Amino acid sequence: MLNKKYAYRLELLMILSLLVFAVLIGRMAYLQLYKGDYYYRLSEGNRVRSVRILAPRGIIYDSKGEALVKNEPGFVVSLLKTNEKPDLAVIEKLAAIIEVPPEKILEKIKKNEDSYEPVRLKSNLSAAMVTKLEEQHGELPGVFLELQSIRKYVGSELAVHALGYVGEVSEQEITGGQFTELKVGSIVGKAGLERFYDKQLRGKDGSFREEVDVAGRTVQTLDKLPPTPGHGLVLTIDAQLQRQVEKITDEHLRYLRSSGFAPNANAAAVIAIDPTSGAIRALVSRPAYNPNLFVNGISTRDWQAINENPFDPMANKAIAGEYPPGSTFKIVTGAAALETGKVTPEELIFDSGKHWLIPMGNAAGEALGWINFHRALAASDNVYFYEMGNRLGIDVLKKYAAQFGFGRITGIDLYGETEGIVASPEYKVQVFKEDWYLGDTFNAAIGQGFNLATPLQLAVMLSAVANKGEIYRPHLVAKVINDDGRLLSEVKPEKMGTLPVSAQTLELLQKALAAVAQEGGTAAQLAKLAVPVAGKTGTAENPHGKDHGMFVGYAPSDKAELVIVAVVDQGGYGSVSAAPIVQRIFEYVYPHKNAAAAVKK
Amino acid sequence: MEFGRIFKRLDYVLLFAVFALTAIGITLIGSATHINVVSDDRYWYVQRQSFFAILNMALVLLTLRFDYRLLEDMSKKLYIFNLIILLAVMFVGHTALGAQRWIQIGPITLQPSEFSKIIMIVGLSAFINKRVDVLDSFWSWLPVFAYVFLPFLLVMKQPDLGTSLVFVAILFGMMILCGFRRKYFVRLFGLGLVSAPLLWTVLHDYQKMRLKVFLDPGLEPHGAGYHVIQSMIAIGSGLVSGKGLFGGTQSQLDFLPENHTDFIFAVAGEEFGFIGTTVILLLYLLIIYRGLNIAMNATDDFGTLLATGIVSMFVFHVLVNVGMTAGIMPVTGVPLPFMSYGASSLTTNMLLVGLLLNINMRQQKLTFD
Fold first, then answer.
1. pTM for this one?
2. Quick check: B309 contacting A, CB < 8 Å?
3. Is A32 in contact with B253 (Cβ distance < 8 A)?
């Protein structure tokens, strides 16, 4: 008998069985006790899908309440996350409809492998795509349409350099620390106010969590966190004025090119600003671009068109274009000379056409004879201001230039502002490794040579002169409002400082600037406007092409309400290229003699 | 034997373990097939499994009237019958999940490889019983190996690697019992290693993939490795006391595939936790213990061999099935005895328990009652 003779063999089998069960129970302890929390989390990850609810971005209004940037309902197509491999047949069918190559779709799916959220494949679908997707819904399992608000720039190019545009946050921006809190696919401001006020505009995305089965079907909603809408902005910009300024600028540039006077006059910057507060009423940079192209990722063709334009549509020339200030700088030189007593208003200086120390003369070679300060500024005499430079010396000139705001950013609420350059011996040594000569001082005194300024710096400089020496920081946003329109915060005009010049000197300057736009001045054509205008022409030498033309002006000349600066890249004489732009803007703002206060709301 | 006597001599401990596991199984099948969710046919699986459980008990009771020793004489015919049926499956069986395992007889589909386990245990017991005194040298075992190899090959070709390995497990238990020498085991093991590449070539692609995935479950997280990963998640997430009956998200939301058949243990792990899995495993251990006890007390070698074969089969099934759900065994279609849904499997296991009971009640000389 086996079992009686060899009972130990059955015992051996029992021991083997015990071993087997010890291993199995041990394995259970490992899975359920030791690693239980880990597997519990995995099971929750399987079961729970969290879906982001995009926060609507804040609306941007102009100063009169017209919406410049808003959100429009659009459709985005997404693919549900499942544990199955993506079905290639479905992907290919989908790819054909939304016109995205299948490899791109697979790449997006792969990038989102770790997430349980649906993969967004394409936003802002066309109406035809939406229709096709809905028709073929049955053949596209896992594919679904979601509503998503699409940023809409109502006026297309209107005020684009102030508004900027939005786009999907790049991986670089997330890893680079700028938007660490954001997820791939989030929409952020990429330029202009959209970027500067991104935090306020963006709001906070909400989410809801739902329980799903293996096929990705929703079983139940677990909880919901509503999104916080972004704040709206009310700008200082007056859309109507902005439209006019853009129209006038474009028309005049076209005229300059077609008349043959300035065939390369494609780029320009025009700023309209309230000197009493720094509020910018209009800001134009030319050429421009359509921000709507960027909202869903710009096409290669569109991007090439923008990128290959030699006049750089993306650059905001009003804050980043650097030009020699030219004769507009004579305001600074004149203020310094009067204030330091190097010249009296009455003193006559003889312009023989050339300065007696260095044979440097007037642009057109004219000689004005005996002239005082008033006449010198009105006629933009170079010899007179060479002499002022001679008397002041470059160090004093440099000091005054800095006090008028040159050589540093104004601090406007936009990124990308440039500093410009204030001419100085230190700068020349540093950059050119050459000594400073009197001729350099002469050039600096009339805004040529090493001096560089942005149109915005010119605007701030003139605003200070027009506004009794008080300097206000230029700004574009007047108010931040809630999504229901309630006021959250108001931007108070910020006084940056006061010009170091006496009221007397300012009055002399203002009178001379007013004479510029009168008979005998360099911008005499402005004399026929309904409102008295003060201003200064400028022509900046350009070694690479035709000179840049500029005009800075304000009106009314006795009580400034509006400062306008126009700079036309390669436009030639300021009186021809820039002054007419300013003239037409003032014509628009002040159509009648008694409508002087029209600019005020 | 009369029913009155049968009831007196039943091994109620063994019966308790079997009933408990069957009941737990039916409950979990209910959970896995969503009887908590409103739908017209939600009770279908539970009703069918319950029906067969009751039917099988009646069947077992009936078999207990006959002496198990009768089987010894029928063994040769059964063996040949088995070979014919297995061959028949190859030609007229239908295919499911890439394997030809089922055969249709009227309204029922049978899985002959399930029943061939009984025949193998009975046949092999009889075959060895005849030679038990001469089984000494390695070569004396060759006829036994050949006896197992023929059906082994047929089942593997279905292909049903799991069941064919069950035959090997049954043989292994009997080899231990009959004193197969340790050095012979070493020799066999060496032979197995050498022939492993050969065996690899006869495997189907999906079987190869399963084995590869077993070695590296991350190989194809959405493909072949998916079942095992989801099963481990289900078991692990049950923690100490489980998510509660019908509370298992892995099985209720269908992340766990085949959850009412081969992966029923993962449902147990998820819904009843470590306490539940331990209780279930201990119930199986109780069956093993009672089985070996019956082998120990059998009055003839045929009975001892039978009981040992049955126990070996149960151990193998539990090891491979639970091991598979826990990620320590490759995926083979081996159901969990008494718990996995499936009439063929349930009937086979019940009949085998019937055999154990049969051996048990005929162990004493009962001339005087």
1. 0.68
2. no
3. no
